[in-house]
Structures are given as C-alpha cells and as structure tokens.
Amino acid sequence: MKQIITPLIALCSVGFFARISYAMARTPVLPLFAFSLGAKVDEIGFVVGASTITGIFFKMPAGTLSDILGRYKVLLIGIFVFALTPFVYYLINSYWQLVGIRFIHGLATSIYGPVAMAMIIDVAGNQKGGKLSLFSSITIIGNLLGAPLGGFILYQLSSNGQYTLEQFHFTYMICGILGLISLFFTLTQFKRSNGTINNNLSLKKVWENFKKGIKEVISDYRVVITSNMEGIQNLSLGALEAFLPIYAVTMAKLNAFEAGVLWAAQIITTILSKPIMGRISDRYGRKIIVFSGMWICAITFAIIPWTVNFYILLFLAMIYGIGEAFVTSSSAAMVADFCKEDNYGAAMGTFGTLYDIGHASGPILAGLLLKHLNYTQSFLIIALILIIASMIFQITIHEKKISTH
Fold first, then answer.
1. Rounded CA separation 189/171 (Å)
2. If exposure means fewest CB atoms within 10 Å of the residue's CB, which of 133, 229, 344, 382 is most exposed?
C-alpha cells in the first residue's frame, strides 16, 4: 500500500497548487480579460483554445520522453512553466500579447499531464481506473478553487462590473505565487531519481526509442478511438469554459463571481463522482460508462442556452460535471488497458494529445459558430458531435476483459 500512497500524495500536493494557479489564469478571468482588450467572440474562443493547442504538439513527446529519460526530469520542466509564466501576464496590454503567452502557458499542462498520469499508472496495477480517478479528483480541487477565486478577486477589485488592466495583472500575480508553491513541493517531495530508466542512453538510442514508442501506441486503433472520446467530450468542455462566463455575464446578467461559481459547480460534481465511477469501471468494465457519460454531457450542454436563471444553470453545470466524470474516470484507464507497460508514457501522451485537440477545438469552433448563429444553435451542433462520436465508439471498440485479481 505504501508504494501507491507515496507518489499519490506527492503528485496531489504538486497538482493541487498548480491547478489552482492554472484555473485562476483561465476561467472566468481569461475570457473576461480578452473581452476587456476588445476581442470579438471568435477571438475569445481562439485565445482560450491557444494554450490547449500547445498540448497537441507537446503531450505525446513529453509522455514518450518520460518513458525514456525518467518521469521526474520531465515533470520538473512542466512545473517550472506553471510557476514562472503567470508573472509574464503582468506585462500584457494587448490581445495578441495575450494569445502569445497562452501558447507558452500551455506547455505547463502539456508536459505535466501525461507524465503525472504515467507515474500513477506505473504503480496502480489493476486499479488504474480507481487510482487515476482519485488522483484526478484530488488535483482538480485546484480547478474548483481557482475559478471562483479568480472571479472573486476580479469582482472585489472591479467597479460596477468594469475591469482594468491593473486588476487583471494583480490576479495573474496571485496565480504566479500559487505556481511557485507547486514548484516548492516538486523540489522537496520527489526523489530526483524517481522514474529514471537509463541515464546513459545515447541521443540516437533516445530517438529510436521515442519513434518506437509512439508508433506502437498510435498504430492501435483502440487507443486512438478511446482517447478520442475524452477529446470529443473536451470539445464541449472547452466551449463551455470559454463561453459560459460570457453567456453568464452578457445574457444571464450574472457577475464574474457567479460565473466562476457555475464553473466550480461542474468541477465539484466531477470530483465527487470520478473516484466512484473509476472503481466501478475497474470492477465491471469501462465502455458503458464512457458511452453513457458522452450522452449526459451532450444533453445538458445543449440545454444550457435555453435558460438565463442562475439556479437552473447551476443545476445543469452539475449534471454536466457528472457526465464528464463518467467519461474521464474510464477513458484513460481503458487506454492503459490496451497498452504494454513500457509504453504507458507514450499512451498517456497520445491520450493527452487527442484530449487537447478536442479542448482546443471547442472554444475555437464555438466562437466561429457564435459569429454566425445564436447560443442555442451553436451549442446544439456541438452536442450532436458528441452523440455521433459516442455511437462510433460503441460500434468499433470491444472492451478488453478486466482482471479483478
């Protein structure tokens, strides 16, 4: 038992503060920051998706390199980005500067995400669903706290709902302080040798192993399609992340703090549901849980723009969070079930890449749709994409039998 508790506690300590920092920097502060800089709806979608685009290119290499060079070294790079990048927001005074720093900030989760997941899988045995879900639930408490905290700081600093550059700069300075705490935990709680496979590999051998790991993983259609489920689910999540705050403030006439509470409600239900669903998937199978979660997310997402009532929006956000827990509790574990042990990093990198393609595409697609359609039509189109993807998954993927021993 000691073998799994130690890395879980260390990773959760790191992830907790890193996620608070990153969540504060993102929702609802980021879309409101872009809006205050004069960004249009499609431009807001792009800036929210910018950091996730980085993950499309870096998550797979980061996960694969952690298989070769060791987890700690690669993890530390990601945490440095978490800790230092928020301070650069203090220099931003234009939309395009904001876009540029979002690309850089995206390196943090691009590197940290797949490596941390691989570290958990390394020691989880046949309890991958439960351990990954527990780890994810504990670390995304940072997201739960970060969103309303960022909104609350802005709300306290603002005057009559009007925001200045200085107020956004101060908020991002707080993000940086929280990131530094995460770096402190990384440097003090991990042994520097943690996860190292071979320190004497030549550059040529590293490159050969890198290509081999990626090829073996992406050639497995089961890995690609199953990873794509969380990617497609994140299409709606990314759209919600970008435009729920804008919808809440402009259409429902809520304040920034209330917009942050809506986001926090979604995260709360995800946190509470994921460990339970992860354990259920370990025991009874993952496919039906993923499929059901896609439908829950699609239906609630489509209903959201039909109301401006805060309490109904709060309820829908919570149900959406349950659907997200269904998908995310089982999809990563199902991918790991399909892979060989020495490719866990590459598998989580592939998983993270498809996750980020969806997450980045969500706000961009929603922004383009909202440029020509209303919220109801735009959200319905995205919901239908989730339904179609779930049907493809149901037809093409045959679940590997899970051993309970």
1. 28
2. 382
pLDDT in tens, the chain (405 residues): 344 446 677 777 888 888 899 888 887 889 889 888 888 888 887 887 787 777 777 777 777 777 777 778 888 888 999 899 999 998 888 899 999 999 889 888 788 877 887 777 776 666 666 777 777 777 777 777 887 888 888 888 876 667 788 888 888 999 999 999 989 888 887 665 444 444 445 555 655 655 665 666 666 677 778 777 888 888 898 888 888 888 888 888 888 788 878 878 887 888 888 878 878 877 777 888 889 999 999 999 999 999 989 999 999 999 999 999 888 877 777 777 776 555 566 666 666 677 667 777 888 888 889 988 899 999 999 999 999 999 998 898 876 555 544
